[in-house]
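Subgroup meeting minutes
Present: P.N., E.W., G.H.
Scribe: E.W.

1. P.N. recapped why we're keeping a running log of single-chain structure predictions: easier to compare across weeks, and new members can see raw inputs and outputs side by side.
2. G.H. added today's entry (460 aa).
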Amino acid sequence: ALVSAAYTALVRHDGDCMKTSGDSNKAGAWMPPILPATITWGITLFGIFMPWQYPSAINGLWLTVTAVMLSYFLVKHPRWQAWVGDLAATSIFAALAAAWWYLGGYPELAVHQSALPLLGAAAFWYMSPQLVHVWDKLTENDQKPGNLALEWIFSVLFWVMMATTLSQHMESGASWMLAGGLLAISGHAVAQLTRRISILIPALLFHLGALHALVIHGNNEPGLGWMPALLLLIHLALVDTRWNNLAKIHLRPILAPGLVAAVCIHAFREFDRPDLIITALGLAMIMWAYRRKDTAFAIAGGASSLLIACAGTLIMHGGQDWLRYLPIAAALVTHALLWRQSHDDNRWKPTRVLLLAAGLIALFFSASIHVQQSFDGSGLAICWALLATLLFCAGLAIRCRPYRLIGLYWLAAAVLHVVFIDVVQMETLGRILSFIILGLVLLTLGFLYNRFQETIRKFL
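Output recorded in log:
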């Protein structure tokens, strides 16, 4: 190995001398020293470290590769850099081989024996831009492509090595409910410190690992089960207040669905009324998103939570449960408030549409089931007519055209129900009440249209 390394330096020195004298063509002149440098690392791997016991071999290989690579940048002497440059550039291949070897035998390593390979992978990630520059310099590449592939490769390798090491030494898979969030936040902290996004994106996947552990082990660890949601909330708060100047990516809409999922998983397991917990979360996320003027955050965190709450309350609880209307009311009131504040802003339109659709669909089915169970299938048209009137009046009050149109459509459905179904199925008293109430509703709406005709035309 030493002979091959010395031969690499001599070939580089000889090539530089030939270029200086003009006896060598510039194109392809870098190839001869790169070949013996690569062979040097092959000899080092198979001839030196392979015969050793695995813990000593993997640590020795990582120590050698990292030391040679760092020495090129730490020792500023030109002669030393000229002799070591090719070995430092080709150490990339040796580090990749060392990472592969580590992943194949990590179960044999203790905790302290895994530290050096992890530090070595982190060093190669950190020095990847400089290594690419050295490679371009040695290969005389005058272009500046700004290739970040090497940096991303070592970032992914580092996190994979970290995950496999922790999995090997954790007593239980439930520990990932805590470790996942901590690793994700730590990766973001390093990215914030170094201003490099490559270490951040793979680290965010650890939140998924925490959610996976929550699904599997959440029932056995109810206290620890809240850690994924808590750490996601902390991460989201840090992104919102402290770590908001890293690259041009929006992490709030990325982290918000994870927080919603963690709260939903735990709430549906631990509480009799998970819909109320999720409703509170949705309202808080909507207010947070509106304060930050982040529509994607509002959809991913707030609207999705209220949508899940409306669906959950519709499916889980009986028709006689009045508390089921709280998530529905929250969705509709939130839509009304957003309409009053941002009806001219098309960016908020998807959020409003989701809230309105979730609230009205849940209200339609909840009210219909409630009335049918309470009056033995009767009174459905009356219920629809009254709700249509309330919706229409709300549309007039807040000047919301969708409310008025949906109210009229709902009223039309009530009329059709009375004419084609109630007349046939209901008794005489029920038919009389249906026609009387429907007539009063139609008279009221007609009066409102005639009384405020000019006002309605301005915003209809």
